[in-house]
Write a structure and sequence with these properties.
The complex is a heterodimer of chains A (202) and B (235). Chain A has nine helices and no strands. In chain A, helix 2 packs antiparallel against helix 6, helix 7 packs across helix 8 and helix 8 crosses helix 9. Chain B has seven helices and ten strands. Chain B has a six-stranded mixed sheet, sandwiched between helices. Chain B is globular and about 55 Å long. Chain B starts with a strand and ends with a helix. In chain B, 48% of the residues are buried. Classes of the chains: A mainly alpha (202), B alpha/beta (235). At the A-B interface, helix 8 and helix 9 of A face helix 2 and helix 3 of B.
Amino acid sequence: MSSLGLYIPGGSPLHRMRAGTKLLLMLLAGAGSVLLDHPWQAATAVAVALLGYAVAGLSWRVALRQVRPLLWIVGFVAVFHTVVNGWERAVVFVGMIVSLVLLAGLVTLTTRTTDMVDAVVHGLRPLRRVGVHPERVGLLLALGIRSVPVVVGLAEEVRDAQRARGLTASPRAFAVPLIVRSLRHADALGDALVARGVDDQV
Amino acid sequence: MPVIDVRGVTHAYGDGQARRLVLRDVSVTLSEQRVGVIGANGSGKSTFVRLLNGLVLPSEGTVSVHGLDTRKQGREVRRRVGFCFTDPDAQIVMPTVAEDVAFGLRRRGLGKAEVAARVRATLETYGLADHADHPAHLLSGGQKQLLALSSVLVTDPDVLVLDEPTTLLDLRNAAVVQRVVRDLPHQVVLVTHHLDLLDGFDRVLVFDEARLVYDGQPDAAVAVYRKLMAREVLG
């Protein structure tokens, strides 16, 4: 099971909903989130997002995994707004961030990447006349999602090598090999894409 | 059986003082079903096989597959020549197993039903059917290499080029990949450091310092290669 918001198979109404509809609803939720003004509204937004997980048959642990990487940011936002604007604003901002992250996770957890890519390609077709290449944007989206676990794996390997050499406190000793290995991976991925039929006429 | 024709190929990376010659005047015609390629690291063998599907275009000379020139008809050549890399993580481009196998078929514009049927059949053939919806990054090394192979074979190429497919695998997974490759009906060109993979091969090429130094039967080729390595180690 992935902790990175990748698709989890299922037959819920959210799994069956069209990818384009889910992405549109996500966009509307993002735009509508600026209207949140009271703590009860923010709490309702989080509750609605969690209800989505229940409808999709996903456990609260899966929901928690989506927001765990943000704990530092959420903590900072909460402290900052409590000090500057009072606890009510802090609750509103934290609720806004958490609900949107939960919803974004819910979309990726209930939607196959290929369906999401197809929806994005379909949605971007009108922009073809202004030079946008929808298929290329769709491929970028898929590669972006695929690359997250790869880069996480590279980072873990670099960190292990760092520990083995006693360089635990050196950000440079972590960043440089990670960047070099990521670029090498990108180069190899480019070759693989060409070998698999993706060339300059995507 | 497809015919791969390499004529007078010399290849170098870089220009001027940074120019590094990696292949020197190689000419060979490959029509056998099983062709092995061996040599030390940096001997030119990986560059040689990358020429075969146009991933690398030669600085001099020509490469053709079934009469199709890799320089002029690269796309058609790549449709006929599937390529499997050493590191499957660099080859898997979609997040889940079934999506990655479907990738090449979708790019060819096949209908959804046909794509689904071919993906299902391929995953069953290579023992990955139970992992269809699993994230690719959670597979074991051997399963990832099988996925990479499946994603190439589902597109039904005439030739399969494998560049050290077992280098990152343990003995058990290497044996699985070896068995899969052995049973393929395709023409296979295999680069490897695992010399036992060449058992039953029709022909083996040995590269050394950018040159094709031996071309013949596996036993004799392996003997030449061992002699070359012994000479280097002992000075």
